[in-house]
Amino acid sequence: MSARPLRVVGRPVPRVDGLEKVTGRARYVTDLVIPGMAHARVMRSPYAHARVRRVDVTRARALTGVLAALCGADLTWCEPYYGPAYRDRPVLAIDVARYEGEPVAAVAAVDEATADAALDLIEVDYEPLPPVITLEEALAPGAPLVHTGKPQAGIFADLSTLRPEPGTNICHQFHFARGDSAGALASADLVLDDTYRFPPVQHYAMEPHAAVAVWSETDGLTIWASSQNPYSVRVELAKMFDVPLARIRVVVPHLGGGFGSKTYAKLEPLAAALARVAGRPVRLAASVAEAFQTVRRCAARVHVRVGFRRDGALVAVECDADYDVGAYADIGPRVVQKGTYTATGPYRVPHVELAARAVYTNTTPGGAFRGFGVPQLAWALESLVDAAADRLGRDPVELRRQNFLAHGEEFAPGDTPIDGKLEESLSRAAEAIGWTRASAADRGRGVAAMLKASVAPSVSEAIVRLHTDGSVSVLASAVEMGQGTRTVLAQIAAEVLCVPLARVTVVQPDTAVTPYDQTTSSSRSTTMTGRAVQVASEDVREQLLRITAEALGVATRDLTLDEGAVVAPARRLPYAEVLLLRFGMSGGELIGRGVIAPGRTAAPLGGSTPFWEMAVGAAEVSVDEETGAVRVERYVSVADVGRAVNPLLLEGQDEGGVVQGLGHTLLEEMLYADGHLLNGTLLLYRVPRADDAPEALECHFVENADGSGPFGAKGAGEGSLIPVSPAVANALARLTGVRLRDLPLTPERVWRALRARR
Amino acid sequence: MNLTMVVNGSSHELDVAPHSLLLDVLRDSLDLKGAKRSCDTQVCGACTVLVDGQAVSACTYLAVEADGCSVLTVEGLADGEALDPLQRAFLDAGAVQCGFCTSGMLLTARALLRENAAPSREDILHYLRGSLCRCTGYRKIVEAIMTAARTTR
Amino acid sequence: MLRPFTLHRPETAEDACALLATLGEDAAPYAGGTELLLLMKLGLLRPPHLVDVKRIAGFGDIADGTRLTIGATVTHRTLERSPLVRARCPLVASVARHVANVRVRNVGTVGGNLAFADPHSDLATLFLTLDATVELVSPRGRRELSLAEFVRGPWETARRPDELLASVRLSPWPTGTGAAYVKFGVHERPTLGIAVALRLDGAGGRARVADVRVAIGCVSPRPMRAEAAEARVNGVAEAELGDVTGAMADAAAESVDPADDLHGSAEYKREMVAVFVRRALRVAVARARGAELSASFPHAVVA
Fold it and tell me: How far apart (Å, rounded) are the C-alpha atoms in residues A613 and A402?
């Protein structure tokens, strides 16, 4: 590759969809109007656990204007269970409702008012059953079972080895070990042993889930869905309705936020079922309150034991983590694996014993959420590392530096070696927060570091089309949910093909048009989908060079691309002319293809991570000791991203990640009492506001072009969130001497801890 | 009931049921999809529109209350192709991510700047107490509003 | 989506009350709708009739006199910006500025707020220190109740079904009063709200605290005056205030009746009452001296 300076990659170009968003023209699923569209409403279980004895929809069905009224028992004509890990989740409850808010019946009607009225006409007989709400309740011997019977496994290769414990609420177990942790702990100079808790929290993507589905004889099933992975939705629908993949089309317009809440099928199966029965397009839009009853983060109770040598070497980590995945597994089993896999954080640890369990409870299903199991573990480990530093009389920054994995070092056999310089992120963060400067008497500083693997194996494919006028279409199924992927993909294509950014159009994800992409999550889109776009663009470039070389009788190595033209020693051919040469007429296009599919490897999770996400967070806090209210005065995030394809968008991502992290650190918690969610609306669930963000918030990036993504890029977006809670808690501990183990650090919790200290 | 209102400079005469919400009339009857339904409890601000210059939660506002009033939605901010300084500032600052809060943020900021042409950071934070964003962390939004205030002056 | 209803828009109080009398439980008075429409959206209320009181003559007025009369449909925003309110009861304008958010303030009314009787009402708490009375109109005529008599409990008032809250009257504090309203809490609604007002009688080093008013909201079934706390400082020499502040704060904490809920445990709330009564007192005393104490606390608003 030429060493020419990059023209558009690495520049803070404005996002390509910005204009439509500031003018109100951007379209989200709930903005779509499909002619003949009917409106759906869902009746949900008021009980956390109940036998559904009878659901009578006949009166609803008979109401004028009702086009479909369904309950679980009606779904005999399709496979009613879906789920990426276990196919354990029915479209509508069958025989039993397993959480408050579970869909039990649904209607589609000519308008919303009729749909509302129809819901009033549905009769349901419930027989309440004892629920299990907490991990303790769910794991108690003889606890009521959320699921009885044996669900089928879902669709993912890395979950082909699901390991439930029959007769319990444990639906998956993960275990990883090396060395002799028991022996190492026994001989360690310092052993710390503690249990940390991470609460159930809600994504609150401001756009709740929505789908519009329509069946037709000619096209099969078309569904516009607010989904982060349309291909996962497609495969679920294919299985459910026994329809070939080629006859299911999932289209994704703009997403009003995702954060993991819109991965894997959520409302799409129900929308499709209603549309099938209604014989018309059906729009199913959840309210925010219903989003609270659709998916959340997996809560966790993490018991960690760490062993240090006197000289500060971290010699052993043992971890026993229970994740509450709610009533249905969703992608919970992978969250458990993924989180636990890096329970040792970014450190070199010779002796390791990690065990984790995914546990069912009768609450909103837990699924993917930015961080994907790692925040829960990092909360525990990074707090303990600081506690160890305190006991060893060591500076927490230096203790981390001492134990960091080095660039190129192995994390686990078969997996990708560490592809970044953790110490560089740490140094930058320490400097930016002023670590070595004395802090004011009423301020404390803390740091935390993270390491996370991205999903592997995974597949991303892309097509790039060069048109006769030299403009370019990029076809890739990475979903734009605000993170800026459409812009980044355009930048990559524009860079490789040497065309202005404005000449590149990224087509919206549409499984009938844009090729397979596994998921927009796991910080992977720039690296994996971006690489696919890069390869596809290079394919087009090679074609341009070959065609020109042949026509001019020169070698391709004597040709370059520049500003929409192929440049030869004596001539300059704009792309339009190259196509004319190729096709002998005005017409045709060059099509390039990129397939990124590293495949399965011997790595413990079934595939080698395409990159390691690594970042450091540093916080400076103050506390009002009389009330326990913590203020984050300053926060610095440093992420090792290889190459920032768009520094402006990346900075925005990470600023958002930090503030979202402050949410679960200080404010957010879904509270249950007797199976009932107490705070399932924004009136009672507190997300960060503008005045919660630290006035001094800095996001920095380490760019050593050492990633496997385009131009040396790696992934980002989760690394900024994960260190927040331990960095803040570490700062609080250094300021006050109190160490809290439960999130969020509400004023009352801090106040109690401060009182207990005296 | 009769509803006559000027929306983004154009007069509309509609017959609406008393229980119609302004948000639904704007989105469904007038095809102005910029205002969004999110929290539905007046907390998040995604549905913000200006009625006679004042920010209201269109999701909790009877359409008939706008009778005889002038309504501004995000679609009315630009003057043809010329963006409002706030729109320009949001774009330049990178203050837009998923875009779902953007319409509400822009209109809230517009109302603020009409009331206070030189807001301090505190003034902006006070005004944005009811405008949530889950993507940006707010920093670039506040910066954009400060920039637009300077540009407008 | 709201369920259908008939919207009535009477232009006189008589017509409005007649409607309420006729329709009984089928009718709900409607002003800003910030609480009512929310309850209707949640399906907790489904009134077939709404009686819009915003066109009733006089309901939107603010009138001066010995007392300040604020019409029921005056919005929080109007209160915040009214030159009259700022002149006669400046703390009311300051507090109104911090209720909920700008959209709720633009539309939500004082009358609606008082009649809804949310225990977390800032205005209801503050008004207790201003000897507030409410005027109720009905087919039977008018009656006036103290605010304390009007607000009976959480979301419960003395308003009869055919009565309308027409206005609230406040007695502005005498010149020289220093006052502060502090609210604290992480959530949308405050966890506690405390109003403290007092005068310093006498000059120089011989001043005595006089006319103390302390009201506490959010932490009891309804906002209340904390008379025991007031008694601890009333008449105390200014120089000795520091000695009695603790007792005052303790008395305030003992006077409330908090429940364990989302906002915190009862124990924590009592403690915070003590903390914020002390803090509000310090600000009020400074203001009574003609000074301004710069006070800012995380998750608190000092008005």
Answer: 19
CATH number at residue C35: 3.30.43.10
Q: Which of A19, A492, A37, A462 has its CA nearest to residue A223?
A: A37
pLDDT in tens, A617-659: 999 999 999 999 999 999 999 999 999 999 999 999 999 999 9
Q: How many whole angstroms separate alpha carbon C48 and alpha carbon C32?
A: 18
pLDDT tens for each residue of A279-293: 999 999 999 999 999
Q: Tell me if C180 sits within 8 A of C287, measured CB to CB.
A: yes
| Out of B34, B134, B137, closest to residue A24 by CB | B34
Integer angstrom CA distances of residue B146 from A559, B87, B101: 49, 12, 18
Q: What six digits make up the tokens of A59?
A: 């009166």
Element (H, E) at C198: strand C192-201
Query: Does C45 contact chain B (CB < 8 Å)?
Result: no
Residues C294 and C184 in one domain: yes
User: ipTM of this predicted complex?
Assistant: 0.99
**Tokens, residue A11:** 């520049």
Q: Which CATH number fits domain B2-76: 3.40.190.10, 3.10.20.30, 3.40.50.720, 2.30.30.40?
A: 3.10.20.30
Residues of B in contact with A653 (CB under 8 A): 97
Both tokens of A149, joined, read 């019977």
Residues C69 and C137 in one domain: yes
In chain B, residues 96-125 whose CB comes closer than 8 Å to chain A: 96-103, 106, 121, 124-125
H or E segment and range at residue A489? helix A485-497
Number of domains in chain C: 3
Average pLDDT, chain A: 96
Measured CA to CA, the distance from residue C235 to residue A72 in angstroms comes to: 72
Report cis status (omega within 30 of 0) of the bond before A457: yes
Three-state DSSP state, A645: coil
- Tell me: do C224 and C274 sit in the same domain: yes
Distance CA C61, CA C77 (A): 13
- Rounded distance between C-alpha atoms, residue C101 and residue C114, angstroms: 17
Chain B CB contacts of C4 under 8 Å are: 17-19
Taking any CB pair shorter than 8 Å as contact, residues of chain B touching chain C are 1, 17-21, 24, 40-43, 45, 48, 54-57, 60-62, 64, 108, 111, 127, 129-131
> In terms of Cα–Cα distance, which of B82, B120, B84 is closest to B105?
B84
Which residue does chain B place closest to C37, by CA atoms? B60
pLDDT in tens, A131-165: 999 999 999 999 999 999 776 766 665 556 888 99
User: Contact, A581 vs A548, CB < 8 A?
Assistant: yes
- Specify the length of chain C in residues: 303
Q: State both tokens at C105.
A: 């303030």
Q: Is A746 on the interface with C (CB under 8 A)?
A: yes
What letter does residue B60 receive in the DSSP assignment?
A: G
**Helices marked H in A43-111 — which ranges?**
58-62
DSSP 8-state secondary structure symbol assigned to residue A347: B
SS3 B150: helix
Q: What is the mean pLDDT of chain C?
A: 96
Cα distances from A160 to residues A172, A331, C203, C297, in angstroms, run 11, 13, 84, 53
The DSSP bridge partners found for residue A323 are: A300, A358
Residue A158: its pLDDT value, please?
Answer: 55
**pTM for this model (two decimals):** 0.98
Q: Report the C-alpha gap between A631 and A621 in whole angstroms.
A: 6
pLDDT, one tens digit per residue, over A182-214 is: 999 999 999 999 999 999 999 999 999 999 999
Task: Report helix, strand or coil for A753.
Answer: helix
| Domains annotated on chain A, with CATH | 18-26+458-596 (3.30.365.10), 32-131+203-291 (3.90.1170.50), 296-456+603-757 (3.30.365.10)
The rounded radius of gyration (Å) of the Cα atoms in chain C is 20
Residue A323: name the closest of A102, A87, A134 by CA. Answer: A134
